[in-house]
Specification:
single chain, Alpha-Beta Plaits
């Protein structure tokens, strides 16, 4: 079975509407599959020598500083080095896992002035990504 995969930088209208829903009870973990541009491209046309990964790194540094304000925490980040099952080309460049106390906390963070200011680097650095909301199994991680 072939699946269509579409990397995106911003959510579509249906995804934005779904983020407005309460979501699951308790914490969520967002799985972020990241694909970077070779060279950062800022929407305002500014000149830069940054790679996409470097621009996204500026975003990541800023977001890491505000996660705690929303009860969130960074769990894991790493480079994708090998696809050991399935088929997808090209592979994502990085994977990041971030835990939020609720979908609402993620939504609140993404609407904050701090996140919005940092997001210019996210947009400049990303060729696209997948964000997958997950919840733990009962008793998982306890």
């Amino acid at each position: 079975m072939k699946m269509e995969v579409v990397n995106a930088v911003w959510p579509d209208e249906a995804q934005i509407k779904a983020m407005g829903e309460p979501g699951p009870d308790g914490p969520i973990v967002m799985v972020n599959l990241l694909k970077f541009r070779e060279k950062a491209q800022y929407k305002d046309g500014r000149e830069t020598r940054l790679t996409g990964r470097e621009a996204y790194g500026l975003y990541g540094d800023a977001v890491t500083k505000i996660l705690g304000t929303y009860g969130a925490r960074f769990l894991f980040g790493g480079d994708v080095t090998h696809l050991s099952l399935g088929e997808f080309t090209p592979l994502w460049d990085e994977v990041a896992l971030v835990e939020y106390p609720s979908r609402g906390a993620l939504r609140d963070m993404a609407a904050s002035p701090e996140w919005l200011a940092a997001s210019v680097h996210r947009e400049a650095g990303l060729a696209g990504q997948l964000n997958i909301e997950t919840v733990g199994f009962p008793g998982c991680g306890k």
